[in-house]
Specification:
- The complex is a heterotrimer of chains A (327), B (499) and C (148).
- In chain A, 45% of the residues lie in helices and 19% in strands.
- Chain A is globular, with a radius of gyration of 21 Å.
- Chain A is built from twelve helices and ten strands.
- Chain B is mostly helical.
- Chain B has 23 helices and two strands.
- The longest helix of chain B is centred in the first third of the chain and has 36 residues.
- With 148 residues, chain C is mostly helical.
- Chain C folds into two domains: 56 residues; 64 residues, no CATH class.
- Helix content of chain C is 67%, strand content 0%.
- Classes of the chains: A alpha/beta (327), B mainly alpha (499), C mainly alpha (148).
- The interface between A and B is large, with 63 and 57 residues.
């Protein structure tokens, strides 16, 4: 009841304003309710972002916005659903680096093409990784970790959030550059992987920086580095990936919006502009920081190029390592 | 006493009129959602999440937690009244709870479920307040090898669940294990036995299987025997359990509570075992195991206590480590982070009012639930007086809507239909679905942890007996197996089943 | 030794063998690996084989444990319930929850031998209204209500 009533109130309040402010071109007007498809279960970062942005978007476009989960581990089912909806900008996909950059390289039989069947709308959030180890390991820098691995081959195990996840591929790339012999242990998502490293089942992890920070501060994990080219204010002692000369510096998890195939550029631009305005609202931006990331916006074209580059980069890793997941 | 001071802090937060209101609201919404088959509390919490952003952190967590344990109460109601389980723990409640309802004892079954949940909830609150640290230590001792051994013990116990032929129960466990493997393999990422159906990538859904096997199959079978339906209209003697029944249940509740409290702490799989394990223990412990599956009141009390205790102690890893033990806890992490509260060990020291407020509200929520639910029993029981021809179309419709809502896909409806048909077949050949479900839930966890342990030990199987907790669990499984196959015991079982 | 077929047990055994064989065929394309480094197919294939063998043993035993016919199946309620569920799956994405609910309840209602048509129709409309109000308006589930 609450949803409906609130939506109506918002509708009434914004309807008048909208009539004057929205652009006249019919291809960028919203004529019915908009669905935001989250290709994961409730509770993940994509889901929370959708539920944060949804009500604001509804107010901005003057139509109800419905958040709908179409969950699967890889996000491919929800993405496929959006790819096959009418290209009128009324069905949006919010998803992350996995669906958009690693899955297309890993799954040969994918029923849609991320770059051809989805229209980029814009990026929302980027969060760097924290690189940490179990405190029982007698190392506190990356150089010491490399030396430890050389002296004790096979003692290190990197817990990751799934086969072919960015965390997994990143560990492979680093191992290759420094000749590390660490093992790769996949888990059912990020939280079980963190549990495993805190309990010393595995002992190395790459995980969202803000989510990992309390463990580092409490001494349950020992921080080694943070991804990206700047240090984190919360963990100023940890070097960044650029300082350590890591093979990939700007790596992390990110989320963005896409629309169904055939969505006109004007519509994508309108959505991009509305979402950008929402992300500039302090109450939304603060929540995103609290979720462990930074607001990152761009244009639909830039987002498309970003996705293309990510697919290409991870594709090179996947091909070089011969990783394949579909049988 | 620190504990008293801490709880005083907690109740000062929980007992503000606003927070009592949010607790009540959460419990009410949770009960409603729990009663509806298939509608998961996680969906409701996600939908309500944006509305909690404007609330203070403690209020929002109190309300969301209320939804969670309210749903546990509600789920048992549906299991007892119409044999439709919406989640794994409710399956065990179906076994004896629905039998009691068929015998006109729906009232006592609902009452004992509520009482057992309350007793367990109270105990678990004390456990969280006093024993979080040692339990956290235990949870951290559980690695892949221990999880594997725990699952072995659980599956050995699964055979005890059946009240019919044990050889069929074994077969059903095996079938459950096999079907549980469908989907993407965690260790290699390869899709297995999915027939290239994308919807099967994450495996066959639990809700469509459970609702199909129990709910839909039960409807089809019951409608085929009009004479049986009158059983539902059996004279309902009394609403409350007799004093003898309560006395019968007290030890069962205690055992269930302890078992549930310990298993609930283990992230990923522990909680799923708790109600099954409690039931198996009661049946083994009982001098009259033949009553189980035919309306034994301890068969309702013990798993309900275990389930509720486990639901509550599953907050421990979240509160002390910041690690969510299941999907709902993961959503709670999201809710906390959006509120600017970073879950983890520092919450207890940095925000004692939030920490203890949430704990105090758990007990308060349990109290509200029993106060709300005991008077409701009369209402629920009177639902059984509605003519069956009006009841069952509603059950069919609600099962469909609930199953659809899990993934917003009609694929799950077809799965539910298929398993409804399979369920009728199982019924006709005398194979019971409960061991199947346990195999289905535990199978993937067991394989995943087995392979992970083998990988971490670099192929050395000794890891399962070298680690003490793992060795102990395997020894217990072996002991249970010996009891099950001992000729004397077996003969006695057979006598019992032939009566 | 005379054959004393226990048909329900035999049917269950046949089900196990068929399921095991089907799963074995599906799993045969997966790599098996070694005991130390198991492939994705190791456990499924092993388990499928065990289910098959176990089923075969039960099947042999079922031939001697006592004559028992297969219990009668009441086809009318079973098929009508199945039809109602199938209707839900087919109709919901096309015509929305309101019309689907009416169709499902009308169809399911016929499964009962003591169905009263007029009463069933009233029930169908009432449940449709109730479902829309409860699931869509109150609980906010993203289910389409009307044909799109």
């Amino acid at each position: 009841m609450l949803t409906r009533r609130r939506t109506l109130a918002v509708l009434a309040a914004t309807g008048a304003a909208l009539a004057f402010t929205s652009a006249p071109a019919s291809s960028q007007n919203f004529t019915k309710q908009v669905h935001i498809i989250v290709p994961y279960g409730p509770g993940g970062t994509s889901d929370i972002l959708a539920r944060l942005i949804g009500p604001k978007l509804s107010a901005a476009i003057g139509q109800p916005v419905i958040v709908e989960n179409k969950p699967s581990a890889s996000g491919n089912i929800g993405a496929d659903y959006v790819a096959k909806q009418a290209g009128d900008g009324h069905t949006l996909l919010i998803t992350d680096v996995g669906t958009l950059s690693t899955q297309p390289n890993l799954v040969r039989k994918l029923s849609f093409d991320v770059q051809k069947d989805l229209v980029p709308v814009g990026m929302v959030m980027f969060s760097p990784y924290c690189f940490a180890v179990h405190p029982s390991l007698p190392v506190s820098t990356f150089a010491e970790l490399v030396a430890y691995d050389k002296a004790n081959p096979g003692k290190l195990n990197v817990g990751n959030s799934g086969v072919g996840s960015v965390q997994h591929l990143l560990a492979i790339v680093i191992a290759k550059k420094y000749g590390l012999k660490w093992g790769m242990v996949p888990y059912r998502g990020g939280a079980p992987a963190v549990r495993a490293v805190v309990s010393n089942e595995s002992n190395v992890i790459f995980n969202g920086a803000l989510a990992t920070m309390p463990f580092v501060k409490q001494g349950q994990l020992k921080g080694i580095a943070v991804s990206g080219d700047k240090r984190l204010p919360g963990l100023p002692d940890l070097p960044n990936f650029k300082e350590l000369d890591m093979p990939i510096v700007e790596v992390g998890s990110w989320q963005g919006f896409l629309a169904s195939k055939g969505t006109p550029p004007a519509m994508a631009a309108r959505l991009n502009a509305e979402i950008k305005k929402i992300l500039a609202m302090p109450e939304i931006a603060n929540k995103i920081v609290e979720l462990g990331g930074e607001v990152r916006t761009d244009t639909p074209e830039q987002f498309g190029a970003w996705i293309a580059k990510a697919i290409q980069d991870w594709g090179a890793v996947v091909k070089a390592e011969g990783i394949q997941v579909d049988g | 006493m620190d504990l008293i001071a801490n709880l005083a802090t907690g109740f000062a937060v929980a007992l503000t009129p606003a927070n009592i209101g949010f607790c009540l609201l959460g419990a009410l919404i949770g009960t409603l959602v729990g009663v509806l088959p298939g509608i998961a509390p996680i969906t409701t919490i996600a939908i309500l999440l944006p509305f909690t952003f404007s609330l203070p952190p403690a209020s929002s967590l109190i309300m969301l937690a209320g939804i969670f344990y309210g749903a546990q109460y509600g789920g048992s109601t549906t299991a007892i009244l119409v044999n439709v389980p919406g989640e794994s723990s409710a399956i065990v409640t179906c076994l004896d709870g629905h039998q009691m309802a068929k015998q006109g004892r729906a009232g006592p079954a609902l009452a004992i479920a509520a009482i057992a949940s309350f007793v367990a909830g109270t105990f678990a609150t004390v456990v969280i307040a006093t024993a979080s640290a040692p339990l956290t230590w235990l949870a951290l001792k559980f690695n892949a090898a221990e999880y594997f051994s725990l699952m072995v013990l659980g599956l050995t116990g699964a055979v005890v669940l059946a009240h019919g032929a044990p050889e069929k129960a074994v077969a059903m466990v095996l079938v459950g294990l096999l079907l549980g493997l469908v989907g993407i393999d965690v260790n290699t990422g390869a899709p297995r036995m999915t027939m290239d159906i994308a919807d099967l990538g994450d495996g066959i859904g639990f809700v469509p299987i459970a609702i199909g096997l129990f709910g839909i199959a039960e409807l089809a079978v019951t409608l085929g025997r009009p004479q049986d339906r009158s059983l539902l209209a059996v004279k309902i003697s009394n609403l409350m359990p007799s004093r003898t029944e309560i006395r019968q249940c007290i030890p069962a509740m205690i055992r269930g509570t302890v078992l549930g409290s310990v298993l609930g702490v283990l992230p990923g799989g522990g909680a799923a075992l708790s109600s099954f394990a409690a039931y198996a223990v009661e049946k083994k412990w009982s001098r009259t195991p033949e009553r189980f599956g035919r309306g034994a009141i301890e068969g309702v009390a013990a798993p309900e206590a275990a389930n509720n205790a486990g639901a509550q102690t599953s907050f421990i890893p979240l509160l002390t480590l910041g690690i969510p033990g299941n999907a709902i806890m993961a959503l709670m992490v999201g809710a906390m982070m959006i509120q600017g509260v970073q879950p983890g060990p520092q919450v207890m020291t940095a925000q004692p009012q939030l920490f203890w407020g949430v704990i105090a509200s758990m007990w308060l929520g349990n109290l509200m639930l029993i106060v709300l639910n005991l008077p409701m029993i009369g209402l629920w029981v009177s639902l059984l007086r509605v003519p069956y021809r009006l009841m069952f179309p509603a059950i069919v419709l609600f099962c469909c809507i609930g199953t659809y809502s899990v993934g917003n896909t009609v694929f799950d409806i077809w799965v539910m239909l298929l398993f409804g048909a399979v369920g009728v077949f199982f019924y006709k050949v005398g194979a019971e679905p409960a061991p199947f479900i346990l195999g289905f839930i535990l199978g993937p966890l067991m394989e995943e942890n087995f392979r992970r342990a083998m990988y971490l030990s670099r192929g050395d199987p000794m890891v399962f007996v070298e680690r003490p907790i793992s060795a102990l669990l395997l020894a217990m499984a072996l002991g249970l197996l010996v009891i099950l196959v001992l000729p004397a015991v077996k003969r006695k079982r057979e006598e019992v089943f032939k009566e | 030794m005379t054959l004393r077929l226990n048909v329900p047990d035999l049917a269950f055994a046949a089900f196990l063998v068929a399921l095991g064989a089907f799963a074995f065929a599906l799993a045969s394309e997966l790599s098996v690996g070694t005991a130390a480094a198991m492939g994705a197919g190791y456990v499924p294939r092993g388990l499928a084989a065990i289910v098959m063998i176990y089923g075969a043993v039960l099947g042999v035993r079922a031939m001697f444990v006592g004559r028992q016919p297969f219990p009668a199946v009441a086809w009318r309620p079973a098929l009508l319930i199945a039809a109602a569920v199938a209707l839900f799956a087919v109709l919901l994405p096309r015509v929305g929850l309101a019309i689907t609910s009416i169709a499902v309840v009308l169809c399911a209602g016929l499964a009962s031998y003591d169905v009263r048509l007029r009463e069933n129709a009233v029930l169908a409309v009432a449940l449709a209204i109730f479902s829309v109000l409860l699931f869509v308006s109150a609980l906010g589930l993203p289910i389409p209500v009307w044909p799109q």
